[in-house]
Amino acid sequence: DGRHLISDIHEPGFCTFYEECGINPDVTGSLITPTIPCLNYSTARLLDKIHYLKLKSVCPMLDQGEGKTFACCSLGQLISLEKSLSLSKAVLIRCPSCAENFAHLHCVTTCSSNQSLVVNVTRTIKVNTTGLEKDAVTAYQAYISTTFADAAFRSCRNVRVPVTGGFAIATMCGLYAATLCTPQRWYDFQGDSSNGLAPLDIDFRLIPPGAPVPSGIVPYNGKVPGCNETSSTGNEPCSCQDCKEMCPFIPPPTSPPQPFKIGHIDGLLAVCLSIFCSLLLFFVCFLLLRTSDHYFKSRNKVKDKNGNDLSQELMEPKDVTCTDRNSLATQEFLGSLFQKWGTLMATHPLKTLLASAVVVVVFAVGLMYIELTTDPVELWSAPDSRARQEKDFHDEYFEPFFRTNQLILTAPGYPGHFYDSLLFGMYNFSGIITKDLILQLLELQTRIQAIEFWSDDLNRTVTLKDICFAPLNPKNPSLSDCAVNSLPQYFQNSVENLNAKVNMTKLGVTKEVDWRDHFIYCINSPLSFKDMTDLGLSCMSEYGGPVFPFLAVGGYENEDYTMAEALILTFSLNNYPRDSVKFKLVEKWEQMFLDIVAEYQKNPATNFTFAYMAERSLEDEINRTTAEDIPIFMISYAVIFVYIAVALGEYSSFKRILVDSKILVGLGGILVVGCSVLASMGFYAWIGISSSLVILQVVPFLVLAVGADNIFIFVLEYQRDKRRPGETREEHIGRVLGRVAPSMLLCSLSESICFFLGALSSMPAVKSFALYAALAVVMDFLLQMTAFVAVLSLDAQRQDRNRCDLALCVTVSTPRPSKPSQGFLLPFMKRYYAPVLLKPVVVFLFMFCASIFLMFHVTVGLDQELALPTDSYMLEYFKYLNMYFEVGVPTYFITTRGFNFSTTEGMDAVCSSVGCDPFSLTQKIQYATEYPDKSFLAIPASSWVDDFIDWLNPGSRCCRLYTSVIQYLQCLMCQKLMKDICSEWGGDSRYLTVMRKSCPFPRRYDSENVSPNFMLGSDLDCLLLPSTASRFMAYHTPLKNSQEYTEALRAARQLAANITRSMREVNGTASDFEVFPYTVTYLFYEQYLTIVPEGLFNIAVCLVPTFVVCCILLGMDVRSGLLNLLTIVMITVDTVGVMTLWGIDYNAVSLINLVTAVGISVEFVSHLTRSFALSTCPTHVERAKEATANMGSAVFAGVAMTNLPGIVVLAFAKAQLIQIFFFRLNLVITLLGLVHGLVFLPVLLSFFGENSLTHTHTHTHTHTRAFVVHLFLF
């Protein structure tokens, strides 16, 4: 019953069709009623008042004045046209000239008085209306000038949809989306009845000027206002966000400063080389001066017959300096005090051990209340830090950031295919985008969605809907309301939709269309409710929101989604406080999710290769590896114990080996370390300071290094010292303690103060570590001065009685040698090491200068992968994330209280619609996205303010529900004041709900987005109350490492600060109003914004007490203190330099180890510095030799050889964090401390150390010391 024809009449003032002829039977599933016009060749009609007013509101460009306006459409046609245009105008109305230009052509083809000049009917059908048979138009041609079409297209091509951040044109150009859309393709989509928006088929013919057209046809070429011009109704030009011509000139962000250069050479390298050359020159000049001085002195020497130098004068009392007096007084006081204390402890060993045990138990009882912090937020983000405060603010007003559970699936080797689509042409599909795999993904998704378990807390079965993130129905969600993003959501998770096929004819060609056509359409128009195929499927997800392709597939280039290499399946769950019942439910669901996915991965029938994670995964894996690596630490401690037990022995013969061994002493030393750690942890548990896994791993290791050194110094000195005639064993122990305890006090006091000052750090993990370590070092020293002295006293009794170690009842008849044992190290140091060592060592100067250069190139940050064990499934997930994800994490720009959104000025400062400030909040974010390499922002912010303005606009169908002309006119009054609310509901407060339900396209609103919610006034001038909090969501670019995360945070904060300054200038804004960015990752990366200056501060405050304590305990010996400090600084700087070479990043864990490095360096350096300062050998070189031989051997055995075996064991740990930051870094610290303490420091002291207390060679060491004491006392 249809016929094809070409219109015969094409004359000015004539209509081609008029009035409505019912519903188009060829159109099904349309979003509008597909009303078609009646074929009617007649003259245009003069409009009456009501008809004219309607035409003026719908098609103002056709208005010729009341009583003068002719049209070719009835009032019913105008109403249908208005409804048809409303869907498109809903997304275009933010740019009035675009919306007008879009409506312009449809008004011309439907209502123009010269309709016949533009329209050529090509198809009609017979219809029966009111008993009369009529011809109804189902297709026609519309002839348009390319000048008009191009100008209209240009006015609309940059209009955005605030809710998505994308272009409105993308939803109105079918498969071509925004990138490939052209004027012809744009109009083709508008004229395609299969898209659910057009009631009939329109063939838009775009005619260039001068091109031939059918007889009588005049291509329409009306006036087209540009997006930067006012519309015909007087509306303002479009905003910058929707019209590039309206954008002010924005200078590109400043490039980062160029590297510091001197000429063509790296400036820092040149400076370091200059420093090295200067130091080297200074050192050479110093050597020349010293050599010449020695030469002239040697020529003037007068010797006696025994070869003694008689040219030196005997020291007189007046020659003793104040420093010498202070130093001697300090040493005598401390030596005497510790000698008496040691004798007392050794005399009553059992009582001492009992008292020590009681004290330890009292402290350790607090362990019952210990809290182990595993939450990364609590560990690395201080409660008063900016990021933490911003998180708390966000969670208070908007609920915690939702939890992500995700799979990234690939199918390597799975064959792809080409598909010749009837609608879209030839497309290449990758192996992962096949129906079989999509169905398998849907099966897995359905299985996960069906997770359920019993909750004792709720006393019922819990399913996904109880805990899922349901943005469109948060109060009472069903399972289908849960936000699940995946490719099957394009088919509403329906197998039937995926299997759907239908034959379709286009341009005379009939082919089958299937899921691939629907998929191609949806990835280009994700907001569509109906595709343009005969399948008639929606692109919206089952839960009602759009499925953006960058969240459903990954691993593509240039938005070529059909060639994606990965499918992405994401379940979003609500987040709850850790003490909430629902937090337990979320964690239980996530564990079941992980179990299902792990089981699915092991299934040999699985065609996918994939990676996965749950929100709890990172914390779980860190805890798992910590538990698994505990045996490694235990083995490490066991190796150290075995070494200490063996190395402390004084082996004189094989027969006495069991007597001379020190297994019990070594065990006692280990127990002292363990008890000090337990006492420290117990004390802080008493007062409520939580511990962490870092403390459990590092503090015992640190205290063991410190404690073992003191143990070796004490025991070796006791073994080497011969008991004096008439001296008891206890007095002997006391005298030895008096000699070495000041050195032990020097190191322990320096380290404890160092760590206590380190607690000034703002990072909770560093702060708690410093506190625990400081008290543990103090307790270790106190227990060494008490319990360990008692243990050594008991062991000395056993050894004097020739009883075997461990087997105390067994005695050995072989007597103890009368000569004290020197061991192996001391003779080696005296004979070989010390004489060879003391030569000028320039290499250390080079190392120091090179490390300064390298220190400026150390990488700052900690990638999440390093916190995981080498066998963690999360490593594969992070690998997939970096390979396949094409968009970064979402970030919110949040406004705090104190800004008035109810005023026009206030809304202008936020929105990006017509009339808004070109430097508003959303507009500045838009500018930033144009430089993603600098701002790290990829997608502009969605704006509820812009959506609300669009909803209020009477030109949009979303505006309100009016049922009479009177109400319509009332709403029309608001058109020029559309930032005020015009309401027919009086004081009701349902605006957000009504807006959400009445708009025909999806919006991501939740009632928490604004607090308080939109409130209405009681009259037609409605009121939007000031908001206490609001947020605007954008997306970062893909961030692949901690440096990019840190820079993204820095850039977002700079942008937010800029927005804050401009918004504070709005009248009525509170002075403390602020805009800040927030996403969950900021909590962990904020520390890297300040970790360099904070690290320098922490290390500096650790270095100060080492200098001060050294000076004080050496009797204000400033020179020795400075040399001591210089060596520790060099160790620390060289450590950072080696970190750069060995790929060890600088972060909070490194900072903890660097603080530890200062403490361990004190052990390597301070003992030897004190030994040199107190030596009475006549020359610097001889004093350095003596200090190196005597104290260096103890330091080597007690610090280096205690640490190294335990450190080597850590290389076998599973956790990369331990391998890198505990094995590598501690190995570097120990080796650098060793070579600086036993190589560099003796050389430094031999050149620049303090002068000896005596200048005469005629006294022995003992006599000299007595002589100096005599000088001081008298």
Automatic annotation (TrEMBL):
GO terms for biological process: cholesterol homeostasis; cholesterol metabolic process; cholesterol transport; intestinal cholesterol absorption. It comes from Scleropages formosus. Keywords: Cholesterol metabolism, Disulfide bond, Glycoprotein, Lipid metabolism, Membrane, Signal, Steroid metabolism, Sterol metabolism, Transmembrane, Transmembrane helix, Transport. The chain crosses the membrane at residues 267-289, 350-370, 630-651, 663-687, 693-716, 736-758, 770-794, 836-857, 1096-1116, 1122-1144, 1193-1213, 1225-1248. GO terms for cellular component: endomembrane system; plasma membrane. It is found in: Endomembrane system. The keyword Transmembrane helix applies. Pfam families: NPC1_MLD, NPC1_N, Sterol-sensing. One of its GO terms (molecular function) is lipid transporter activity. This is NPC1 like intracellular cholesterol transporter 1. It is a multi-pass membrane protein. It catalyses: cholesterol(in) = cholesterol(out). Residues 629-794 form the SSD domain. Signal peptide: none annotated. InterPro entries: HMGCR/SNAP/NPC1-like_SSD, NPC1-like, NPC1_MLD, NPC1_N, SSD. PANTHER family: NPC INTRACELLULAR CHOLESTEROL TRANSPORTER 1 (PTHR45727), NPC1-LIKE INTRACELLULAR CHOLESTEROL TRANSPORTER 1 (PTHR45727:SF3). Belongs to the patched family.
